[in-house]
UniProtKB/TrEMBL annotation:
PROSITE patterns attached to this UniProt entry: PROKAR_LIPOPROTEIN
Keyword Cytoplasm: no
Keywords recorded for this protein, A-Z: Signal
Signal peptide boundaries: 1-27
Annotated organism of origin: Streptosporangium fragile
Name of the protein in its database record: Extracellular solute-binding protein
Length: 465
């Protein structure tokens, strides 16, 4: 899934604090102008998308304040905010009509297709110019590189799926919460123990609103599988990995009776029941799920455990990754591309690369009741992220000791992005497969996968290339 599914932020003041600090840090670093949109006075103007709409008054005010702070620090750059956001149909129209903003966030799932169609700018040189080239996370940079080795975007909101588990239920079931499951076989055994000893669902899975297909994809990857061919032309999930994932879930549901009674969870409802002590384990995005279960649904922090996605059969186990990438208009001039990268460094990465910004953001978040220090996939290099964590250590208010199963593996995990074409349509088809397996004891996994592949292939054939 993409970033709109994450929980809403609770700390708008943090954004303002970070913006102000970074503005000071970037003062005097304006970009020399040349050609493109340079005005007679040398000012370079760029259009920046993703401005919150008027009905989001608080978020819009923060965004506009950050624009002002940036322009104050960079008098040679003028920002023209735009409410344009990613949409597969309007994006194509904007490209064709010449109305695409100079900077816009797009999902991880789309970047390779945009590179192939030459609809994003090569920003390799500008990354070096503004000092970001060596600061980005090499794990996620691979996602935005073309076959030519050049870089075409900046991953700014990356995530890697993890396994949440209820430490209190683990203890009641006689399981050691300090030793969470590392394989899917261990997940099945732990889920059965939780169900038998506590009467609650040992493991639950999202299954609606495309989240079922999303998490099935994560399970397939963790067992060495894939969903589509590299070019997105054909479905590939009728394979051993997906059959193993569905067979595992079928066994947990019908043989072990360890998955409870709700087989139509969405992202919000599964978090709610987990927080209420009704679920032992589930897969999700760490930042979104922690915010939901602790901040929104008041689960005690001490009961929240997070570990790496378990592995299963397959020699190519990977972790599902997603998020947002900032791209630059392919028609942008060199001066505009430089200005765009300065904006991205300020707006998206400021708190990770500037100590003042990091401290201001963390302090404000903590004061506003937000969660500080949730484990996450870093947008910057491991070394830089370690420095960032040191900067904010005083304000961390999450139980990091409960997350070591996740954090100890994060820097070396192999990432695999979501399906490259029509991801949401694919997930919707897989939702149906999952629901059938969980609600029909006689469901034929092989037949369901054959039918699903045929349906997806038809959708992929119709999708724009």
């Amino acid at each position: 899934m993409t970033t709109p599914r994450r929980a809403p932020r609770r700390a708008p003041a943090a954004l303002l604090g970070g913006a102000t600090a970074l503005a000071l840090a970037l003062a005097g670093c304006s970009t020399p102008s040349s050609g493109g949109s340079a005005a007679g006075d040398g000012t370079v103007t760029i259009t920046v998308g993703d401005r919150p709409s008027a009905d989001q008054a608080a978020a819009r005010a923060i965004y506009d304040r950050r624009v002002q702070e940036f322009q104050k620090a960079n008098p040679g750059i003028r920002i023209e905010p735009s409410e344009t956001v990613w949409d597969v149909q309007t994006f194509q129209a904007n490209v064709a009509g010449g109305t695409l903003p100079d900077v816009l966030k797009v999902p991880f799932t789309e970047i390779q297709a945009l590179i192939a169609r030459k609809q994003v700018a090569d920003i390799t040189d500008q990354l070096k110019e503004v000092g970001l080239a060596d600061r980005l996370n090499p794990q996620t940079v691979k996602i935005v590189q073309g076959r030519d080795g050049r870089t075409y975007g900046v991953p700014v909101l990356p995530y890697a799926i993890g396994l949440f588990y209820n430490r209190a239920l683990f203890e009641k079931a006689g399981l050691d919460p300090a030793k969470p499951p590392r394989t899917w076989a261990e997940v099945r055994a732990a889920a059965k123990a939780v169900a038998e000893k506590t009467g609650q669902a040992g493991y639950a899975q999202m299954a609606t609103e495309n989240t079922g297909g999303w998490m099935l994809t994560a399970q397939s990857y963790s067992m060495g599988g894939s969903i589509e061919s590299e070019d997105g032309a054909k479905a590939t999930f009728d394979d051993a990995a997906m059959r193993n994932a569905l067979t595992l879930l079928k066994g947990m549901r019908w043989e072990d009776d360890s998955m409870g009674t709700n087989f139509l969870y969405n992202m919000n409802d599964i978090a709610k029941d987990f927080a209420a002590g009704k679920i032992g384990m589930f897969l999700s995005v760490p930042s979104a799920a922690y915010q939901a279960v602790v901040i929104n649904f008041d689960m005690p922090k001490k009961d929240v455990g997070l570990t790496a996605v378990p592995t299963g059969p397959g020699n190519d186990n990977k972790v599902l990754s997603g998020g947002s990438v900032e791209i630059v208009n392919p028609k942008a001039s060199e001066a505009e591309k430089s200005a765009a990268l300065k904006w991205i460094a300020f707006f998206d990465l400021g708190k990770y690369i500037n100590q003042e910004a990091a401290v201001a953001d963390a302090k404000a978040s903590a004061q506003d009741g937000g969660a500080v220090g949730i484990p996450r996939l870093s947008p910057i290099s491991p070394e830089g992220f370690e420095r960032y964590k040191e900067w904010i250590a005083e304000y961390v208010n999450v139980p990091l000791e409960n997350f070591t199963g996740y954090t100890d593996n994060l820097a070396t995990v192999q990432l695999k992005t979501e399906p490259v074409k029509s991801a949401q349509e694919v997930y919707a088809v897989l939702d149906t497969v999952l629901q059938k397996v969980l609600t029909d004891k006689g469901a034929d996994v092989d037949a369901l996968l054959r039918e699903a592949v045929a349906t997806v292939d038809t959708k992929l054939a119709r999708a724009p290339r």
